[in-house]
């Protein structure tokens, strides 16, 4: 099997499990919300909020890992929303160990896939601080560059043009105006 075909098969499997887990999770969160006094439309709003927040946080976590940014808060929120979804599925299940296990399967399968997908994200290691014990940091020596002195430009007017040579009047070099401290 070629790598491209294998990637396509993995994507189809991921989407199928995500769709089924999403349908089960949406339904359980909706039904639990309605069973506890929320109107039907708020039940769906709760389901959308919980499930899409979980997906968004997974994507945000992956983007932050690629960029080498901190993931602590996003990771904690992802776990919290995933547990909320899982709790809704278990609460809607038959009141037995097997009922809870069977109800938890879609969420657990989806969480396992999210973990696998997120673990494939390249991680940018944080920069080593030079004052850490055992840290070694190599820096290239700076190249010597010649600094050109700043020359003030002279406004062009007939009087100035008559007094100063043309080279000084027509200078189009950028200049720095201001006080240097």
UniProtKB/TrEMBL annotation:
InterPro entries listed in its UniProt record: DUF2637
Keywords: Membrane, Transmembrane, Transmembrane helix
Presence of keyword Iron: no
Transmembrane segments: 12-29, 41-59, 71-91, 97-118
Family annotation (Pfam families): DUF2637
Top-level division of the source organism's lineage: Bacteria
Protein name as it appears in the record: DUF2637 domain-containing protein
Organism: Micromonospora echinospora
């Amino acid at each position: 099997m070629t790598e491209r075909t294998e990637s396509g098969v993995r994507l189809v499997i991921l989407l199928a499990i995500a769709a089924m887990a999403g349908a089960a999770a949406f339904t359980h969160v909706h039904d639990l919300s309605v069973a506890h006094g929320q109107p039907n439309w708020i039940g769906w709003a709760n389901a959308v909020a919980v499930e899409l927040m979980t997906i968004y946080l997974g994507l945000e976590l992956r983007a932050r890992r690629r960029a080498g940014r901190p993931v602590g808060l996003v990771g904690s929120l992802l776990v919290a929303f995933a547990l909320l979804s899982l709790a809704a599925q278990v609460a809607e299940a038959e009141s037995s160990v097997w009922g809870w296990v069977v109800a938890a399967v879609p969420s657990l399968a989806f969480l396992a896939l999210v973990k696998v997908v997120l673990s494939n994200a390249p991680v940018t290691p944080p920069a080593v601080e030079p004052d850490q014990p055992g840290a070694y940091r190599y820096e290239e020596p700076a190249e010597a560059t010649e600094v050109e002195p700043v020359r003030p430009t002279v406004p062009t007017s007939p009087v100035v043009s008559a007094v100063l040579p043309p080279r000084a009047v027509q200078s189009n070099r950028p200049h720095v105006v201001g006080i240097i401290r």
